[in-house]
TrEMBL record:
This enzyme's EC code(s): 2.8.4.4
Cofactors that this protein relies on: [4Fe-4S] cluster
Keywords of this entry: 4Fe-4S, Cytoplasm, Iron, Iron-sulfur, Metal-binding, Ribonucleoprotein, Ribosomal protein, S-adenosyl-L-methionine, Transferase
Protein name: Ribosomal protein uS12 methylthiotransferase RimO
Domain Radical SAM core, residue spans: 154-387
GO biological process: tRNA modification
Domain MTTase N-terminal residue range list: 27-137
PANTHER family for this protein: RIBOSOMAL PROTEIN S12 METHYLTHIOTRANSFERASE RIMO (PTHR43837), RIBOSOMAL PROTEIN US12 METHYLTHIOTRANSFERASE RIMO (PTHR43837:SF1)
InterPro entries assigned to the protein according to its UniProt record, in alphabetical order: Elp3/MiaA/NifB-like_rSAM, Methylthiotransferase, Methylthiotransferase_N, Methylthiotransferase_N_sf, NA-bd_OB-fold, Ribosomal_uS12_MeSTrfase_RimO, rSAM, rSAM_horseshoe
CDD domains given in the database record: Radical_SAM (cd01335)
Record PROSITE patterns: MTTASE_N (PS51449), RADICAL_SAM (PS51918), TRAM (PS50926)
């Protein structure tokens, strides 16, 4: 069983799970999915379309007639990882199609790997399909190639990411995602609900709501109502909560209307969990970032959320070493952490990204100082996490089982999202548990990031 701390990169998705057995003579495509959960959903949509056209999905290079690499361009380190993955696919297979965020810079990719067969940008599904058709012609058999009702999924069957919008209207100076993925485009609420219903009918026990800016969902649609569902995050969360699955909200900007979600959490319709990208706490740093937030008001909002829903869990990510960050500004962030007492925290050191406006800011922080501040920040976050988890010893938690092996069951509480947060381990009397089971556990032990417990009942 694996333990935390997990990777602190905010742009990493869970590992893709591919299980598919091709029929004789069936054209087969491999998929390497990098980047955030939003990119993982794009990969699922591409593979679903390919499966509908008669392609099989290969879990390895050797069994694939061609490989799609869905790339990330969030940070320069993510770009390097994408180039490395493309190179590996070329070496192991030789027939490679590139898509995703880094595909918005085709010359960057072809300059490093001129032998790729095609390059397409993010969520350009039709262009990806055209490239696959050119490389590996389809050969469908409608009597054999049956597409699952929920399409092809790259996550375990008991949880699924539910993407509600594309793009972002913010202009944060360190981020180029709006340049790559465009402005906010929300899906109609009735389409989101229908997808969620199909997922729950297929056995999904947890829906992870994702977008670039979940709080802004429906703004571009003027919160229009269609087919009985209004395109507003509060209404959408309420409708999703009626389906009987856990509903977890990610990437929620702390706008004032977020407070309307808290009663839904107190009622049990939505998990008492908010993933909010605060990024920093000092007002001048936030101003240089062009962030739509004010730290002082945020503390007031956090206090109000906790008053309305005491069990609420808050996760966030932060940037240290942003250009111009002084020791005083960094200390303000540490002091803010002491007050905010966030439950789950990720942090990464600022990196220049080609095309980002923050590159031109003065007074860039030296690498060794960024590292030193990152270590101090994580020491603070770890101490807060350790104290909060220690307080849970003796409590009874409802958990969802993610996996079971010979050593025990790896589970998550309502406070833990897949891959990025902690785990709860059951190492006795776990026989009979299956992934997707939701059980009650008494917490017996805690570490910095994880819990151990005793099974009470299914």
């Amino acid at each position: 069983m694996s333990q935390n701390p997990p990777s602190l990169r905010p742009d990493l998705a869970p590992r893709a799970l591919i299980q598919d057995a091709p029929r004789a003579g069936q054209p087969t495509i491999g998929m390497v999915s990098l980047g955030c959960p939003k990119a993982l959903v794009d990969s699922e949509r591409i593979l679903t379309r390919l499966r509908a056209e008669g392609y099989a999905i290969s879990p390895d290079y050797a069994g694939a007639d061609a490989v799609i690499v869905n790339t990330c361009g969030f940070l320069d380190s993510a770009k390097a990882e994408s180039l490395e993955a493309i190179g590996e696919a070329l070496r192991e297979n030789g027939r490679v199609i590139v898509t995703g965020c880094l595909g918005a810079e085709p010359e960057y990719i072809t300059g490093a790997h001129p032998k790729v067969m095609a390059v397409t940008g993010p969520h350009q599904y039709e262009q990806v399909l055209d490239a696959v058709h050119g490389a590996v012609p389809p050969s469908p058999d409608p009597f054999i190639d049956l597409l699952p009702a929920t399409g092809v999924r790259l996550t375990p069957r008991h949880f699924s990411y539910l993407k509600i919008s594309e793009g972002c209207n913010h202009k944060c100076k360190f981020c180029i995602i709006p340049d790559m993925r465009g402005r906010l485009v929300s899906r109609p609420a009735h389409a989101v609900i229908r997808e969620a219903e199909k997922l729950v009918e297929a056995g999904v026990r947890e829906l992870l709501v994702i977008s670039q800016d979940t709080s802004a969902y429906g703004v571009d649609l003027k919160h229009a109502e269609a087919k009985g569902h209004r395109a507003h995050i509060t209404d959408l969360a309420r409708d999703l909560g009626s389906l009987g699955a856990w509903v977890r909200l990610h990437y929620v900007y702390p706008y004032p209307h977020v407070r309307d979600l808290i009663p839904l959490m107190a009622e049990g319709l939505v998990l008492p969990y908010l993933d909010i990208p605060f990024q920093h706490a000092h007002p001048e740093v936030l101003k240089r970032m062009a962030r739509p937030a004010a730290a002082a008001k945020t503390l007031d909002e956090i206090a109000r959320w906790r008053a309305d829903c005491p069990e609420i869990v808050l996760r966030s990510t932060f940037i240290v070493g942003y250009p111009g960050e002084t020791e005083e500004e960094f200390q303000t962030l540490l002091d803010w952490m002491d007050e905010a007492q966030l439950d789950r925290v990720g942090c990464f050191q600022y990196e220049d990204v080609a095309g980002a406006r923050s590159n031109a800011l003065p007074d860039h922080v030296a690498p060794e100082l960024k590292q030193e501040r990152w270590e101090r920040f994580m020491e603070k976050a770890q101490a807060i996490s350790e104290a909060k988890l220690a307080a849970k010893v003796g409590s009874v938690q409802e958990v969802i089982v993610d996996s079971v092996d010979d050593e025990g069951a790896t589970c998550r509480t309502k406070a833990d999202a897949p891959e990025i947060d902690g785990n709860l381990f059951i190492d006795e009397d776990f026989e009979g548990l299956q992934p997707g089971d939701i059980v009650k556990v008494e917490v017996e032990e805690a570490s910095d990031y994880d819990l151990w417990g005793r099974l009470l009942e299914k």
